[in-house]
Design goal:
Elements lengths: L2 E6 L3 H12 L4 E7 L2 H11 L3 E4 L8 H11 L4 E6 L4 H9 L4 E4 L4 H12 L4 E2 L1 H13 L9 H7 L4 H11 L4 H8 L3 H15 L4 H10 L7
Parallel strand pairs: 1-2, 1-3, 3-4, 4-5, 5-6
Length: 222
């Protein structure tokens, strides 16, 4: 099954570079290109790509607002934000807007291709150092040690013991394969558990699951 990707960046040379990388893969195809956020929203409506590679800083409508509109209007299309700027506010704003991933443009081609496939499959991808600071930010907002809030206990009660264990490992930043190795489970079983966790907690993706786990103190940064 071919994954159709829309490229959104105001720099033509970067779009060409991304096109060369994607065209080298038999399961990926460029569905179109846009040079700003407004064009991205319009082209998603016309072409309905599976994944949008979205730049952040562009003239007119920026990538954050474009992401918000795409997620609201076309929920079947996933957005993977890419930027040269390693700044927290871009990552956080993009994830809050509904992006399924955040990578820096200096990522290796193999990392980019893996991220596109993961996002298309329904997973979330965030650059490791962004994940670390994201979790540190939430940790700094948590109250002092003590009992978890009543609302957290109530929410977590819907999870089985195994699902809670899987959620904790996901919150540590582990992939499905790594969770499987850690808990001695089949990777397919872990994927099923993750899907059930998201459904039970009403969460969109793994990023929201990580945030939920830290907000509700199921796990803390080490």
């Amino acid at each position: 099954m071919t994954i159709r990707v829309l490229l959104v960046d105001d720099q033509p040379l970067l779009r060409v570079a991304f096109t060369l990388v994607l065209d080298s893969q038999p399961d990926l195809a460029v569905a179109g290109e846009a040079e700003d956020g407004a064009g991205a929203v319009r082209m998603v409506g016309e072409h309905r790509p599976d994944v949008v590679l979205m730049d952040v800083r562009m003239p007119g409508m920026d990538g954050i607002e474009a992401t918000r509109r795409i997620v609201e209007e076309f929920p079947d299309t996933k957005v993977l934000i890419m930027t040269t700027f390693d700044l927290d506010e871009y990552a956080f704003a993009g994830l809050r807007a509904g992006a399924s991933g955040f990578l820096l443009k200096n990522a290796q081609p193999a990392e980019l291709l893996s991220a596109i496939r993961s996002v298309a499959a329904g997973d979330a991808v965030v650059a490791p150092r962004i994940t670390r600071r994201l979790l540190d930010t939430f940790a700094s907002q948590l109250p002092a040690d003590g009992g978890a809030p009543d609302r957290a206990e109530s929410a977590v009660e819907v999870l089985t013991t195994r699902e809670r264990s899987v959620l904790v490992q996901v919150a540590r930043g582990l992939s499905n394969a790594e969770v499987a190795a850690e808990l001695f489970l089949a990777e397919a079983t872990v994927k099923t558990h993750v899907s059930r966790i998201l459904l039970k907690l009403g969460l969109r993706d793994r990023v929201q699951a990580v945030v939920f786990a830290y907000e509700n103190r199921l796990v803390r940064p080490t």
